[in-house]
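so my prof wants the structure for this chain in the tokens format not the other one, which i didnt know existed until like an hour ago. anyway here's the sequence
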Amino acid sequence: MKDASQRDVQLPWTGERVVPGIPETEALFQFHWTRYSFAVANMHGGRVLDMGCGAGYGAYLLATSDPASFIIGMDIAQDAIAFAKSRYQATNLRYIVGDALAFPFAWASFDMIVALEVIEHLKDAQQAVEKVRRLLKPDGVFVVSTPNRDVYSEGHKEPWNPYHIQEFSLPEFKALLSSFPYIQIYGQSHAVGSLIWDDDVLNNISVRLDLIGNKPLSEAEFLIAVCSLEKRPLQPSRLWLMEVQDLCTVLEKRQRYLEQIQVQIASLNKSVGELMAYQRRVEGLWPVRVFRHLHKIYASLVKSQSSHR
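here's what i got, hopefully its the right format
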């Protein structure tokens, strides 16, 4: 990774992609980081494509987790690639600008392809999945995630996120990936807990799910699939813990952000009210009333002349 003096490229948050270090995206960053960590658990060396790498932190995690692999981070946005190059560098990591529907690679050239929160942005997700399948080697693996439409956009006929072209329910997600003979679907949601530990906590820990119950995949906020052309060992369910203090910090920052938005909305509403009041005052002035009366007479004359032609 480059040092702070080299981090001169900025990537503003538009709502389309997660940018590390921006308060508005910290909660989402936790989701994205754990998805990439899950992808790392499915790596088996070789050549890896991070399709839609965005800011580059995920491609960097893949590269530093397995130095024997070679990672290509690809994104259609040039500003995102410039940001990734300026922040996240590794000897086994390369970034390119590329389109997920027009891959510049030879068939059967990747051991793994990762597409996390990408397919919902594509005009033809099915075409992209078919291209991914052909890009994978016979023993390759495809790790893909997307929001669960039934939860993420509940109550909306269309995706509420303006950057999403199409979202998928659990059955639709399975159908999208059906060209792969082997598919394992996972759900992802936030889980907040209480940790009781001793000095040996990292080596001896028991996870209890008493208060969560038996939550079905259909209720997960995000869906993750591990797809392959050959049968692979199934990955176990995993839990990433976040310190409560860190979570509280995220929630506090989000609350401050919402308060700022509310202040802006109140200011805009005040401005709208003042403009409407000004309009009403203007409408009541005698020159305006005379102008509107003369305009009606003129329009009537024009209409009368047109009907006599």
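also thought this was worth mentioning. Strands lie at 47-51, 70-75, 93-97, 110-116, 136-147, 182-188, 222-228.
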